[in-house]
Write a structure and sequence with these properties.
alpha+beta, 3-stranded antiparallel β-sheet, globular, binds N-oxalylglycine, binds manganese (II) ion
Length: about 290
C-alpha cells in the first residue's frame, strides 16, 4: 500500500489514502506525511478509529507532544481527557454537553475565532491533530486558511512594512474580544502575553507566511487601537475564500494542520448535541521573537 495525497484545492489541504495511521509507521512513511504537510499544510485522513493512545503515538512521529496546562480554564479535576489531550468537545467529565452558561463552554467559544493553536505560548505549536470521535451533521465545520498564500498576495509595500513587526499574543485578548473578561488572578497570570513575529519563515520550505491569530492584542511599539485595526484588516485579507479549505466532518476523520502556516476556526452548531473532538498537539522547537524578561 503506497501513501497517496490528493489535493483538496490545488495548493492547500490534501487527502491522504493508502495508510493506516492507527498503526506504527515506518520512518519513511512519517517523512512522506511530513513532506505532504510542507506542501499542503493541512492533511485529512478518513476512517481512522483512534484510541487516545494511538492518536498520541501517531502524533509523536512529528515531534514531542505539547502539554495542555496554561491553555484553558478547566481545572485539572474537571478534565475529561488526560493532560496530553486537548478536549475540544462541548462535553463535561460526565460526557454530557455543557450547560449554555457554563464558563468552560463560553471560554471554548473562542475556537470560533480565526486562530493558530498555542500562539499564546512563548514556543508555539508545530502541528495540531484533531480526531472527530462523535461529529455533528449540521454546522460544526472547521475552516482553514493558508497564511502562505495570504502572505504571497500582499502588495510589496505591505510586505516591507510588516517584515520585522512583533505582536503580543494572549488568551486574554481572544477571550476579551468575546466579552469573556472575568478571570481569576491565577488565570490572568497564566495568560501573560508572549511575543511572536508577524511574518514567519517555514524552516523546511523557506516560504514566508503571516502569523495571525485572534490571540493578538497589539503590535510592539504601536498604539493598541492602530494595531488592532491593522491586524483586523490583515485577518480579513488572509481569510478570504480563495485562501480557505472547509472541512465537513465525518466520524473518525483525523485532520492535521501546521500551525506555523495556517489559521483555523470552528463554525457554530447546536451545542445541545454531542460533538466529541480530541486534539493532540506537536510542540514547536523555537521562539519566533525574543520574550520580555519575566
Ligand atoms: C482545535 C480547534 C476546532 C474544532 O482543535 O484547535 O480549534 O473544529 N478546533 O473543534
Ligand atoms: Mn484551535
Amino acid at each position: 500500500m503506497a501513501i497517496k495525497i490528493t489535493g483538496l484545492t490545488p495548493d492547500f489541504a490534501g487527502e491522504v489514502s493508502g495508510i493506516d495511521i492507527t498503526q506504527p509507521l515506518t520512518r519513511a512513511q512519517a517523512d512522506a506525511l511530513e513532506a505532504g504537510m510542507d506542501r499542503y499544510a493541512v492533511l485529512v485522513y478518513n476512517d481512522q478509529r483512534f484510541t487516545d493512545e494511538q492518536q498520541k503515538d501517531f502524533s509523536r512521529n512529528f515531534g514531542a507532544l505539547e502539554q495542555t496546562p496554561g491553555g484553558n480554564i478547566t481545572k485539572p479535576a474537571d478534565r475529561r481527557l488526560d493532560p496530553e489531550m486537548a478536549d475540544v468537545s462541548n462535553l463535561g467529565k460526565d460526557h454530557q454537553p455543557l450547560a449554555r452558561d457554563d464558563r468552560r463552554r463560553l471560554f471554548n467559544l473562542g475556537n470560533q475565532l480565526w486562530h493558530s493553536d498555542s500562539s499564546f505560548r512563548a514556543i508555539p505549536a508545530k502541528y495540531s491533530l484533531l480526531s472527530g470521535r462523535i461529529v455533528v451533521d449540521d454546522g460544526g465545520n472547521t475552516e482553514f486558511a493558508d497564511m502562505r498564500a495570504a502572505y504571497d498576495a500582499l502588495d510589496t509595500r505591505t510586505k516591507a512594512d510588516i517584515e520585522d513587526l512583533v505582536c503580543e499574543h494572549s488568551l486574554l485578548y481572544s477571550r476579551g474580544t468575546l466579552g469573556f473578561t472575568e478571570l481569576s488572578e491565577e488565570e490572568k497570570r497564566m495568560f501573560t502575553p508572549v511575543r511572536q513575529r508577524l511574518v514567519r519563515t517555514h524552516p523546511v520550505t523557506g516560504r514566508k507566511s503571516l502569523y495571525l491569530s485572534s490571540h493578538i492584542g497589539t503590535i510592539i511599539g504601536w498604539p493598541m487601537p492602530e494595531a488592532r485595526a491593522f491586524i483586523r484588516d490583515l485577518t480579513e485579507h488572509a481569510t478570504q475564500k480563495q485562501f480557505t479549505y472547509v472541512h465537513r466532518w465525518r466520524p473518525f476523520d483525523l485532520v492535521m494542520w501546521d500551525n506555523r502556516t495556517t489559521m483555523h476556526r470552528v463554525r457554530r452548531f447546536d451545542e445541545t448535541k454531542v460533538r466529541d473532538m480530541r486534539r493532540t498537539t506537536v510542540a514547536g522547537d523555537s521562539v519566533t521573537a525574543e520574550q520580555l524578561a519575566a
